[in-house]
Amino acid sequence: MNRLELALQQISEVRAYSTRVLDEADPADWFRQPTEGVTHLAWQVGHMAMAQYRLALVQVRGPQADDERLIPTSYVTIFGRGSVPVADATQYPTPQQLRAVFDAVHEQVLAEAPTFDDALLDEPPHHPHPLFNTRFGALLWCARHEMVHVGQIGLLKRLFGAAATW
After folding, report:
1. Vertex 8, ends 154 and 52: CA angle to 5°?
2. 61 and 112 in contact (C-beta within 8 Å)?
3. pTM for the full model?
4. Most-buried pick from 17, 49, 84, 162 (CB within 10 A)?
5. Which residues are paired to 132 by β-bridges?
6. First and final C-alpha spacing in the chain
7. Burial class for 40, CB neighbours closer than 10 Å (0-12, 13-18, 19+)
8. d(Cα 109, Cα 42) in Å, to the nearest integer?
9. CA atoms in the 13 A half-sphere facing the CB of 117
10. What letter does residue 112 receive in the DSSP assignment?
11. Cα-flanking dihedrals φ and ψ of residue 91, to 5°?
């Protein structure tokens, strides 16, 4: 297994777990917050979609003209660093729309990443980042980042009375 295959395996394994956690989530809980402004499932899903797009695609291959068909540009504002989740569901895409983008970004990563040249992975990412300094590092951080956020979803579910997902 080469390093690109290893990174994609990690991304896929974490996504499989994220999908299980989300599939078991009560749809009524998507915009529920334990305390106003903390977080909710909808924000977490939108954030994970936006982050996977930026980490596994933009940081490695750069932005593409047709990326808007994959993920709305508004996701950076709504779900990016510094955004504050609000309980008002009308401020967000629906859970179905969020899942569709979440899934579409992942499918695009799995389609494009196997074509990345190994030498490209040693180059600096398209945008500086404090947690990695190569494009390969961006791919590795992609899986780690999602695991952090699916853990937050798991905590939310537990706070709302659901059993842990294994």
Report:
1. 55
2. yes
3. 0.96
4. 49
5. 129
6. 26
7. buried
8. 21
9. 4
10. H
11. -85, 0
